[in-house]
Amino acid sequence: MTRPLAVVDTADPLACLAALRDALDGIGPAVLFRGGGVNPVHTAPLTVDERVALVVETSGTTGRPKRVALSAEAVRASATASESALGGPGQWLLALPVQYIAGSNVLARSLSAGSTPLPVPAGRLSAARVLEAVAAMDDPVRYTALVPAQLSRLVDEAEADDALRRALAGFSRILVGGQATPAPLIERATSLGWHLTRTYGSSETCGGVVYDGVPVGQTTVRITDGRVELGGPTLAEGYLDDPERTASTFVEHDGQRWYRTDDAGELVDGVLRVTGRIDDTIVTGGLKVRLGDVERIVREQPGLADAVVVAGHHPEWGEVPVVVTTTRPDLESLRRAVGAAMPPEARPDRILTVDAVPLLPSGKPDRLALARRAATGH
C-alpha cells in the first residue's frame, strides 16, 4: 500500500506545521519539505509506502544525496522523548530550516505540546531577528534548537548586547546539535546564563536521540568495532528508492534493528562519547591520524571555533592535516597545541585562510568543498 507524497515549500513555516500535522494524523499526504522555492528540477516520488509520513532530503557532509523516510510513529517517538528529557512541554523558537530534521523536529515537538512555534524572521540569524521572535512568545517555558555556527554568532552578539543575553537566558533549554560543539563555545554560552544541551543524532534517527551523552526515550546505543550504532523507535524506515544503502545502514541483531552511524565512539558508564568519523582517518607517513581528533583540539584554541580540519596532499608524507579557518593563527603555536595531546604526525601541516567557511544549508561545514580547496591551496 502507498500514500501520496507532497513537496511543500518552506517559505511559510506555519503552513509546513499544518502539513506535517495532517501527515502524522494520516489525513493528508506524506510531506517532503524544500526550501528556497520548490525547484521542479529536483524530482521526488509521487507516492511512498503508507507507513512513511515525512521524507527528509540530506546531502550529508561527505556522501551522495539521500532521502530518509520516517514514519509517523518515529516522528512522534522523537518528540515524546525530547519532551520527557526536557522536563515537559513548552513553546519553541524556530531558528532552523524546516527542510532539515532539526527544523522539522521543532514543528513535531510543537504539535506534541499543542503550542505554536515562533519562526525567527527570514535572513541571517541576528540579535534583532531573534529578539523580534522572542517578543511574540507567550509561554514562559521556552525552547529552541541551534547548530554550533548559529550559537557562535549569537554568543558573539550577546556578549555586547544585554537584551539578547537576557532573552536567551530565559529559555528553559537550548539544544545544540548537527556537529561537534567546541568546549570553549559551550563555556562562553553557559557563562551568559544560557542553558545548553548538546544533542547527537541524524535524519536516520529522526534527529537528536542522545542528550549530553545520555540516550533519551527508548533509544539504545552500542559500539560495534568502534562504530556508534543507535536503536529504538525513532529509526527511519530506510532510504527511498535505495534498498542497497538501506540494507547496509540498517541492520538487525538479536531481534533488534540498529542504525550504523559513520561515527566512532565509546561508552563510559553509559555515557556516549563520539570520538570522530569512521571515515576521517588519513595515513601520513605510514601512520594513521584521525582528523576529527585534530579538529577537536584545533577548535579549542582561541578564535578557532569555526575551524575545520581536512586532508591535504604532501609530496613526502602522502596525506596531512590541513586547517581551514577564517582567521590567521600562528602555525607553529597550533602545531605545538596539537602535538601536546597527539602524536607528532597529527600536527597540522599548513593553514588555509578563507573569507568564510562554506556551509551546507543545514549549517554544517561543507567538507567536500573544503577538501577541494585544500587540494588546490585556495
Task: Give structural notes.
This protein is of the alpha/beta class and 378 residues long. It has two domains: 72-272, ANL, N-terminal domain (Rossmann fold), CATH 3.40.50.12780; 280-376, ANL, C-terminal domain (GMP Synthetase, Chain A, domain 3). Helix content is 30%, strand content 32%. It contains eleven helices and 23 strands. The protein has helices spanning 13-25, 72-86, 101-113, 127-135, 148-158, 162-169, 183-191, 243-249, 291-299, 331-341, 367-376; strands at 2-9, 30-34, 47-49, 52-58, 66-71, 91-94, 118-119, 142-146, 173-176, 196-202, 207-211, 214-215, 220-224, 227-231, 238-239, 250-253, 256-268, 271-277, 281-284, 287-290, 308-314, 318-325, 350-353. The strands form five sheets. Strands 7-6-8-9-10-11-12 form a seven-stranded mixed beta sheet, sandwiched between helices. The protein has a six-stranded mixed beta sheet with strand order 3-1-2-4-5-15. The radius of gyration is 21 Å and the shape is globular. The termini are far apart. The model has no long low-confidence stretch (mean pLDDT 91).
